[in-house]
Automatic annotation (TrEMBL):
It comes from Arcella intermedia. The keyword Hydrolase does not apply. This is methionine--tRNA ligase. The lineage of its organism: Eukaryota, Amoebozoa, Tubulinea, Elardia, Arcellinida. Its EC number is 6.1.1.10. GO terms for biological process: methionyl-tRNA aminoacylation.
Length: 461
């Protein structure tokens, strides 16, 4: 699926791998040595499905399918049971103040910032956290160092995988170094790939990533992630997706129908960060045709028309042939990358993408109003013989170059096809290059590459 969606990744980790066990053991020892793990007795509510111990206020009364009274988790709705057992506990309650100070001094540590309120409420109720399970009940876990009767709690084990890939990265041929974990290896990772700039998670696991994980790292004396992005979920026509409702959406079907670019575009524009994204194929189809096929695809097709540009050449920059409207459009154009970059840094993809689409709508309107087809002559040896036509095509094609450069992270296949046609070399397809006029760093010679097929085909829904 990642390959079909053009999503690249550096590593793929299984928590059963030796490199991960090495990391978990090392982290556990650090927590023990710092005095933050002790043996204690736990008595309270436990959710087997969620692998989580719960506070009394996180449990409510309910009934099972037979009408029998049960207790369930407020957060997940899964059944809980009362347990009493001896295991290892982490002094989470000791980190209340440090966690609050972290949030106070790093207001953008959790995105969207509205989730900070939820995290603060959890911090206020923190008790110590059980970080092991009896091995008879969870035989698949990583054994606690020196205690074969206990295994490491899944949310200490699993969270440590972020550290694992930093300390034991895969090399260029896909193999992980299998040396033992050591302080030297850890310091090497800390000077290179740790801490991560961004953790991207779902909103349902905020507590584990914005409370437990930072506290573990604080106790181990390790730097915290710079930012945690907790996105919303996807619903289908405002309802939670479930097999019983028959409203589960299959990505493969949508990729086959709209292409990976079309599906990626929809996910990034309509996907929720602060709130849930809502799937509706009618909206997907409208976005695909209005924004991609019409706004981008049609403009590209019209601008490379053989009737307008029979020699298939890049228009020359002739400042004297530009009117005031041309100059205003170009000035605004070179601000687009900066605005998009700001939106990306704020994890506001819809705003960044809409900035580009609004620019393309303006250029479409400009192209139509200037009617370049009326400037065609029978003796048009090159665009230079018709300066006004050259100017219109320069503004249009330069707009396509800039907007496609900044849209590469959204629709990589379409933008690659367009930039390939314009003969833009890969090293010139950067945000930096998109903020300056094309003529300042290159001077295209000869005809451009053959034009690609239709970028976005019309789709019957």
């Amino acid at each position: 699926m990642f390959d079909e969606m053009d999503i690249s990744y550096d590593d793929f980790i299984r928590t059963t791998q030796r490199r991960h066990k090495e990391t978990v053991n090392f982290l556990w020892k650090r927590l023990m040595d710092s005095g933050n793990i002790y043996i204690g007795k736990y008595e309270g509510w436990y959710c087997v499905s969620d692998e989580s111990f719960l506070m009394p206020n996180q449990v409510i009364d309910s009934k099972d399918s037979q009408g029998n009274p049960i207790k369930i988790s407020v957060e997940s709705g899964h059944t809980v049971q009362w347990v009493t057992e001896t295991n290892y506990k982490f002094r989470l309650s000791n980190f209340k103040q440090q966690l609050l100070e972290w949030l106070d001094t790093h207001p953008e540590a959790l995105i969207p910032t509205g989730r900070t309120t939820e995290v603060r409420s959890h911090i206020a109720e923190l008790g110590d956290l059980s970080v092991s399970r009896n091995s008879r009940r969870s035989s698949w876990g990583i054994e606690v160092p020196g205690d074969p009767e206990q295994v490491v709690y899944v949310w200490l084990d699993a969270l440590a995988n972020y550290l694992t890939v930093a300390v034991f990265p895969y090399d260029e041929v896909g193999r992980s170094e299998m040396e033992e974990m050591s302080e030297e290896r850890l310091q090497k990772a800390l000077s290179g790939s740790w801490p991560p700039l961004v953790h991207v998670i779902g909103k349902d696991i905020v507590k584990f990533h914005a409370i437990y994980w930072p506290a573990f790292l604080m106790a181990a004396g390790l730097p915290l992630p710079s930012k945690i992005v907790a996105h919303g979920h996807w619903t289908a026509k405002k309802e939670k997706m479930s097999k019983s409702k028959g409203n589960v959406v299959h990505p493969k079907y949508l990729i086959d129908k709209y292409g990976s670019d079309g599906f990626r575009y929809f996910l990034l524009v309509e996907g929720g960060i602060s709130s849930d994204g809502d799937y509706d194929e009618a909206i997907l189809s409208n976005r695909y045709h209005a924004d991609l096929a019409n706004n981008l695809g049609n403009l590209f097709s019209r601008s490379i028309s053989k009737a307008l540009n029979p020699k298939n050449e890049w228009p020359q920059y002739l400042e004297e042939s530009f009117n005031e409207e041309d100059k205003v459009l170009l000035k605004e154009l070179y601000q687009i990358p900066k605005n998009v970059d700001e939106a990306i840094q704020e994890v506001n993809f819809p705003r960044g993408i809409e900035t580009v689409m609004e620019c393309l709508r303006k250029v479409n309107k400009y192209f139509h109003a200037n009617e370049p087809w009326k400037l065609i002559t029978n003796h048009q040896d090159s665009l230079l013989t018709v300066p006004r036509l050259n100017a219109i095509l320069y503004v249009t094609m330069e707009s396509l170059r800039v907007t496609c450069t900044v849209l590469q992270f959204v629709i990589p296949r379409a933008t690659s096809a367009i930039l390939d046609h314009f003969d833009i070399p890969p090293h010139h397809r950067t945000f930096q290059h998109s903020q300056q006029p094309f003529y300042q760093y290159t001077s295209p010679q000869g005809p451009l590459s053959p034009s690609p097929k239709i970028i976005f085909k019309r789709i019957q829904t």
